[in-house]
Amino acid sequence: MTTSCVTLFIDDDLKRQLEALLDDMGLSMTTAFTLFGRAVVRQNKLPFDIISENYDPNKIQAELERRIANMEATKTTTT
Fold first, then answer.
1. What does the pLDDT read at residue 51?
2. What is the 3-state secondary structure (H, E, C) of 25-79?
3. How far are the Cα atoms of 4, 27, 34, 55, 70 from residue 1, in angstroms, in the given order?
4. Helix 29-43 with 12-25: angle, nearest 10 deg
5. What's this model's pTM, rounded to 2 decimal places?
6. What CA–CA distance (Å, rounded) separates 59 from 64?
7. Is residue 15 helix, strand or coil?
8. 79 pLDDT above the threshold of 60
9. Helix (H, G, I), strand (E, B), or coil: what is residue 4?
């Protein structure tokens, strides 16, 4: 198997925290990113959900219900 070099830029403080945590787990940065890459390829998606801090499922549900009600109220039938 051949390997490739990947360069990425992250905040210095984040890098230090990540390296310390991975070291506690017995993993190198390379191993962690390889695990991440394999998970993405295997699942064909990111292996975690990304949710906005402003995400409110109740607001989304209410908006969907409002739109459905509006569609049903304005629905016309053709005969």
1. 81
2. HCCCHHHHHHHHHHHHHHHCCCCCCCCCCCCCHHHHHHHHHHHHHHHHHHCCCCC
3. 10, 21, 14, 42, 57
4. 90
5. 0.62
6. 9
7. helix
8. no
9. coil
